[in-house]
Amino acid sequence: MRYTVFFILLLHYGSLFGAKHSVYPSKNKPLSAAILSSANGDTIIVQQGVYSEGLITINKPLTLLGNNNPIIDGQNKNELFLIKSDSVHINGFTIKNTGISYLYERAGIRLELAHYCTITNNYFENTCYGIYSGKSGHCIIKSNTIRGNSTLNEASAGNGIHCWYCSDYTIEDNSIEQQRDGIYLEFTTESKINNNISEKNLRYGLHFMFSHHDSYKNNIFRNNGAGVAVMYTNHVEMIGNTFEENQGGASYGLLLKDISDATIKHNIFTRNTAGLYAEGGGRITVENNNFYENGWAIRLMADCTDNTFTKNNFIANTFDVATNSYSNYSIFSGNYWDKYTGYDINKDMKGDVPYHPVRLFCYIVEQNPPTMLLLHSFLVSLLDIAESIFPSVTPDTLIDSSPSMVKIG
Asked: Does pTM top 0.85 for this prediction?
C-alpha cells in the first residue's frame, strides 16, 4: 500500500523531483520559452516583474511559482494561461486584463481536459472569466482572489470560477467579487465548495445546474444581484453557509429550482428579500437554519412536495412563510417562530397550539403583489386579528404542529 501511494504521488506531483528554472521579465517571452524548453515535472520560478506574452500554453506537467507576485498582463487583448495537461500547478501570480470578447470566454486561466491541477494563491484583476475549467477533474482551486470590472453589465462580464463538465473539484478559500456569477458550475459532480466569499456579483454569488452529489459548506454569499441559484440538481448538501443582503425585486438568498434529495442545514439567511425560494423541489431537508430579518423567510411554491422544515429559527422576518397554494405537501415541525403567541401548559418547551406561519395578508400579496403597498396599514392588522380567530383563507395544512417555545441552538 505504501508503494502504491508513493507512485501515485510521483505521477501527479512529479514537479517536486524535476529541475528548477528561473525566468526574468524581458522582451523575448521568457516564460513561454522556459515552458517550451522544460521537461515534464520541472518547476519554473517566475521572478517579479511584468510579463506580456499573449496566450501562454502549458501542455506538459509543470509547476509555475511566482516569486514576489509577478504580473501576467493580457493588455486587454488576450486570454493568459491555457492548461492542456495533467498535473500543472500555478501559484503566486497577479493575472490581469484579458479584455472582453463576445465570441469567446476569455479567462485568466483556462483548463481543458486537465486533471490533478492546482490553481492557488493568485490574484485575478479585470479578467473576463477568472478561472474557466472544461471537461477536467480532480483539480484544486484554492486561496485565489478574483476581482472583476465594476463598470461591466451581465452581458459583458464573465464568471469568477466557471466549471463545465468537471468532476471531483475542490474550490475553497477563494474571494470573488464584481463578476457576473461568482462561482458557476454546470454538469460538475462530486465536488466540494468550501469557505469561499462571493459578494457584489452582478447576478449570482453561486449558480449551479445539473451538478449532482456536490457539497457547499461554510461559504458567504453577500450582496449579490440575486443570491444563490440551485437548478435541476439532486443529492446536494448546503451546510454552514451565510446568505445575506441579497436584495432586489426578484432576489433571494437561495433559490431552489427543480432539485431533489437535498440537505440544507446550519445556514444563516439574513436581510435578504427572500431567504429561501423553492419551486419544484422534493425530498429536501431544511434543518437548524436561522432566518433573520428577511422580507420573506421562505417562499414555498405549490409544486414542492415531501420537504421537511424542522428546528429552524424565524426571527424578525416580515413574512415567515409564503405560498401560492391553499394546499401544502411539506412538513413543518419543531421550529421557533418569534410571532408565535401560544402557550405551553405541560412545560415540555413545545407549544400546545399549532402555529400557522402564513399570514392572510401574505397570502393576498402572493395573489396580488401590488397590495404590498398596504403592508404597514391598519387594515393589515385587522386582517391578522381576524384570521387568528377565524382561519379561512390561509392553508390550513401548512402548520407547525409542535412549535418550539425557545430559540433553537
From this structure: yes
Residue 30 lies in a domain: yes
Say if CB 253 and CB 272 are below 8 A apart: yes
Q: What is the gyration radius of the CA atoms in the chain, in angstroms? A: 25
Cα 169 to the center of its chain, rounded Å: 14
The total domain count for the chain is 1
d(CA 406, CA 206): 33
Percent of the chain clearing pLDDT 70 (strictly above):
87
Q: What are the φ and ψ backbone dihedral angles of 371, each rounded to 5 degrees?
A: -70, -10
Mean pLDDT of the 247-253 span: 88
Q: Please list, in sequence order, all residues whose beta carbon lies within 8 angstroms of the beta carbon of residue 119, skipping any fewer than 6 positions away.
A: 89, 90, 109, 131, 139, 140, 141, 142, 144
Instruction: Give residue-wise pLDDT tens across range 317-347.
Output: 999 998 877 777 899 999 999 999 899 999 8
For residue 167, give its domain range: 13-225
Has residue 260 got a pLDDT over 80? yes
Distance CA 136, CA 119 (A): 13
Residue 17 lies in a domain: yes
Identify whether 269 is part of a domain. no
pLDDT digits (tens, 9 = 90+) for 125-151: 999 999 999 999 999 999 999 999 877
Short-list 379, 365, 362, 278, CA closest to 321? 362
Give the CATH number for residue 110: 2.160.20.10
Domain presence at residue 45: yes
